[in-house]
Design goal:
Length: 225
């Protein structure tokens, strides 16, 4: 496990030497890159090529909905209705940071077509914000307990390179933070635009469950085969 001082400080785990695939995994509000490190050993990656998991730490910023408290966040949350009053400037600023992480993996010999963007909650929003607009085809988008941000701009801004990129989209039916109706609307918008969305619902709150990790492992093995 290593840390680096590249665009964003990140924790890295390689499943074997000389990785040929990268998974850039973005955490949720108030967490950091350590949050999803434990999932690597819980995923069944048998048969997958060597993978570099990159867990970046989001910038620290004041978050309006939390009374301006300073915490790690990809963008500001202005209110409890996540689809209204969005921090578009913050989303686009972090999109540029994620693009730098993609460029870093390419500079280390992993092509865009072997890079998966993954994220939970805010990290899920950033995965969709960045992945749909990226000008080269990515291997996949792994979207957990989140939603499609600034959705009105997606039809005009999305790039054709990722029109057919597999999207794994999962959510808890009892999620009190990002309500499942918002996630379902996001799923429906993506499908209406022709994107390939594999949708999963689980009996859980704003979290991750064992069944979900099993399904993620199956999806990863399928798209990396």
């Amino acid at each position: 496990m290593t840390k680096n001082n590249l665009p964003l400080e990140a924790i890295e785990i390689e499943t074997a030497p000389n990785p040929t695939v990268a998974v850039i995994w973005l955490h949720g509000l108030g967490a950091d890159g350590n949050d999803f490190v434990p999932i690597v050993r819980e995923l069944d990656l048998s048969g997958c090529p060597p993978i570099r998991f990159v867990f970046p730490h989001a910038p620290v910023m004041p978050v309006t909905v939390n009374a301006g408290y300073m915490m790690r966040a990809w963008y500001d949350i202005l209110g409890t209705d996540l689809s209204q009053q969005e921090d578009e400037a913050g989303l686009r600023k972090s999109q540029a940071l994620v693009e730098q992480l993609i460029a870093r993996e390419k500079s280390r010999g992993i092509p865009a077509s072997s890079i998966i963007l993954a994220g939970f909650s805010q990290g899920c929003a950033m995965t969709l914000q960045t992945g749909l607009r990226h000008p080269e085809k990515l291997a996949g988008l792994l979207c957990l307990s989140g939603y499609l941000p600034i959705h009105a701009t997606v039809p005009d801004e999305r790039h054709g390179a990722n029109h057919d990129t597999p999207i794994f989209f999962a959510h808890g039916v009892d999620d009190p933070i990002v309500r499942i109706d918002l996630a379902r609307k996001s799923r429906d918008m993506l499908k209406a635009l022709g994107h390939q969305v594999e949708w999963h619902e689980y009996l859980m709150p704003h979290s991750v469950c064992e069944e979900e990790l099993d399904d993620i492992g199956v999806w990863l093995k399928r798209i990396l085969a």
